[in-house]
Write a structure and sequence with these properties.
alpha+beta, 479 residues, RNA-binding, 5-stranded mixed beta sheet, 14 helices, BirA Bifunctional Protein, domain 2
Length: 479
RNA sequence: CGGGGUGUAGCGCAGUCUGGUUAGCGCGCUUGGUUCGGGACCAAGAGGUCGGAGGUUCAAAUCCUCUCACCCCGACCA
């Protein structure tokens, strides 16, 4: 077992940080709450990005880039927005050796500056919709930073769209929520619950916020991505007006949606174990590591290594470039080489030693289950993709089962408190309470409403207020 | 911002209460050797302004004052 990683049962926070350190995903930066995303972590992010970006483009969006600095006055144009974000903004007051006339905010999100630009770009109904995404960094001076989950600066994408009608904007909001769901489920193997946020959990300035909620292996919830229907709030604040087909001057309807490097934290906390990182193959920077094994350096160089390169070339043909690594750390003993890749979450290990050479086979070991087996060497191009596919599905199924096993139905607040205290996890039921009720429940139990799941439209008696006709809800303690 | 804790080698720690030669230990790292299919062993090494500043003292990792940083639990949040 890993000797450099705290056991998950012993101290979940320590375990989480140990896994990240051992896998070399990130390191602490000299500035509070900031992190350095190390090459392995960044490669992982690039794979996540790629999956989103492809789908954004498939749904008609284009990428652009807006500036990092935003005039402070922009933030103040939308009342709820400034209230929500001003406390956590970093502000630039000096530049060029002089005090600035107007302080500049380091963007915490870009609705304001993009709204400002859209007002210049939109005049006619023919200018709509605008479907823009940007990949960038943002800064939120959170009180309690945590690697990947809540860093002062983080990387994300933010989509900002403007539409002529309310219906179109709502449709866009839900379409992008579905894109998030698909990437998270199919690529990251994260079972998520798409749902609508309660009033108390809404994005500052939004009419409605949708979310993909996911359960970590300590049974706490993590908001993995959000999609906001902004109504005409930002259009009115920034004067995004257009003349309709009928000649009327109208405000546009806007949306925004974002997903961040927090997803890497979600990957760690969903799939990893006491040995370290476990990654779903589809986003793992290295999907397969080949280990030539021999005590004889001459045979290694002349026979095993060339053979390993042949296998690599064949796998490159089916997996795409740079997903296969040949381990050449010949100064290490085999056990050390195993652990090296184990801790970095490489989904599949292939061993090519003297035995395999003799038999004409490859031995494989799955990272997620430890399952071992072998197949004929010349079957690698068929067997490896099949194994990776199984790993991907099994990781998702395992996480889904964990969530199901840790989801409990309640019908009263007493039951709610009892379940939360004894088993934690997701609590389902009906909820029709107010913002004040949400606050009271949070103060009493630490749990918050995560969402009203879109997939379950039943109504019933509220577990808190007792009123009928309440919606299905999920409560949980959250990150 | 409230509560708790920690700063000594890359990482984890001992030493601090009770001041006293050259500041230790484990892991890791370097070199050599024996090993080698799930975290080996032997030997020799490298690596420290003890978080920072000031003070007390013949003498400070150790005592005093101030300060900074980080971690954990809350409130706030992608």
């Amino acid at each position: 077992m890993a000797k450099n990683i705290t056991k998950r049962d012993e101290d979940y926070s320590e375990w989480y940080l140990d896994v990240i350190r051992a896998a070399e995903l990130a390191d602490y930066a000299p500035v509070r709450g900031c992190m350095v995303v190390r090459p392995t972590g960044y490669a992982l992010w690039e794979h996540v990005q790629e999956q989103f970006d492809r789908r954004f483009k498939e749904t008609g969006h284009v990428n652009a880039y807006f500036p990092l600095l935003i005039p402070h006055s922009f933030l103040e144009k939308e009342a709820k927005h400034v209230e929500g974000f001003a406390p956590e903004c970093a502000v630039v007051t000096h530049a060029g050796g002089e005090e600035l006339e107007e302080p500049l905010v380091v963007r915490p999100t870009s609705e304001t500056i993009i709204g400002h630009m859209y007002s210049k770009w939109v005049q006619s109904w023919r200018d709509l919709p605008i479907l823009i995404n940007q990949w960038c960094n943002v800064m939120r001076w959170e009180k309690r930073p945590r690697l990947f989950l809540r860093t002062s600066e983080f990387l994300w994408q933010e989509g900002h769209t403007a539409h002529a009608t309310r219906e179109e904007a709502v449709e866009e909001t839900l379409r992008m929520l579905e894109v998030y769901r698909e990437v998270m489920e199919d690529e990251l193997a994260l079972p998520v619950i798409p749902g609508e946020k309660t009033e108390g959990e809404r994005f500052p300035g939004a009419d409605n916020t949708y979310t993909c909620e996911t359960m970590m292996s300590d049974r706490k919830a993590l908001q993995a991505g959000t999609s906001h229907f902004l109504g005409q709030n930002f259009a009115k604040a920034f004067d995004i007006q257009f003349q309709s087909e009928a000649g009327q001057l109208e405000y546009a309807w806007t949306t925004s949606w974002g997903a961040s490097t927090r997803l890497i934290g979600a990957l760690v906390m969903t799939h990893s174990d006491d040995d370290g990182l476990v990654l779903p193959p589809r986003v793992a920077p290295t999907q397969v590591v080949i280990l030539p094994l021999s005590n004889d350096q001459g045979r290694m160089d002349e026979i095993l290594l060339p053979r390993a390169r042949e296998v690599e070339a064949r796998l490159n043909g089916v997996l795409g470039p740079r997903r296969v690594l040949i381990d050449t750390q010949f100064h290490l003993r085999p056990a050390d080489r195993f652990f090296h890749h184990l801790q970095r979450g490489v989904p599949l290990r292939l061993e090519l030693g003297e035995r395999e050479l003799e038999e004409g086979t490859l031995r494989y070991v799955r990272r997620d289950t430890g399952e071992k087996g072998s197949f004929p060497l010349d079957r690698a191009a068929e067997e490896v993709p099949a194994l990776l596919g199984r790993i991907q599905r099994d990781l998702h199924a395992k996480a889904l089962k964990f969530r199901q096993d840790n989801t409990h139905e309640v019908s009263s607040f007493a039951e709610f408190q009892e379940v939360l205290a004894s088993s934690g996890g997701f609590i389902t039921g009906y909820f029709g309470g107010s913002k004040e009720d949400e606050r009271a429940i949070k103060e009493a139990t630490g749990a918050t409403p995560r969402c009203f799941p879109l997939a379950d439209q039943r109504t019933g008696k509220c577990f808190y207020t007792g009123q009928e006709g309440a919606r299905r809800v999920i409560f949980a303690k959250a990150y």
